[in-house]
Amino acid sequence: MKKLALAAVTAVFFMLLIPISCGQVGDSQSKVETEKGVVQVLYFHGKQRCATCLAIEEQTKALLDAEFQSQQQQGKVKYRVVDISTPEGEAVADRYEVAFSSLILDTDGQTVDLTDMGFRYARSEPETFKANLKVQINKLLK
């Protein structure tokens, strides 16, 4: 009986230990490198993507290429598309507490969540979407 109890305690211990140790490995690899004064434009998406999700990515890239090309070349603005259905993407999403398609700006520890604005305008009013996104990026660049 004592052997059975000891085996059960050991099994529970290892079941608890494995997720903790795996989580620590993932966390060390999930760090998004932030640089002082750099605006990171992060677009998160899952495996299944609707037309609006695709429009957010497309319109964000179009704006960055048209209006922030020199800042991207200088490294002052960085665009990153993160697939949260991958282990690497999930780890980055955890850092920003993102669980679904999202558009986040991050600079010097300050984050701006533009997800609602993206879903509201990216597909139906792309020029409004790009104008709002441009204003927010410019605020963070100052």
Chain oligomer state = single chain
State the helix count.
6
Rg (C-alpha, Å): 20 Å
- What percentage of the residues does DSSP assign to strands (E)? 15-25%
Helices and strands, in order, run as HEHHEHEEHH
Please bin the fraction of helical residues. Answer: 55-70%
Mean pLDDT: 82
Short description:
The chain has 142 residues and is an alpha+beta fold. It has helices at 2-29, 51-67, 69-73, 87-96, 115-121, 126-141; strands at residues 39-45, 77-83, 102-107, 110-113.
Task: Write a structural description.
With 142 residues, the chain is of the alpha+beta class. The chain has 6 helices and 4 strands. The protein has helices at 2-29, 51-67, 69-73, 87-96, 115-121, 126-141; strands spanning 39-45, 77-83, 102-107, 110-113. A 4-stranded mixed β-sheet has the order 2-1-3-4, sandwiched between helices. Helix 5 (115-121) runs antiparallel to helix 6. The radius of gyration is 20 Å and the shape is globular. It starts with a helix and ends with a helix. Mean pLDDT is 82; it is low at 8-31.
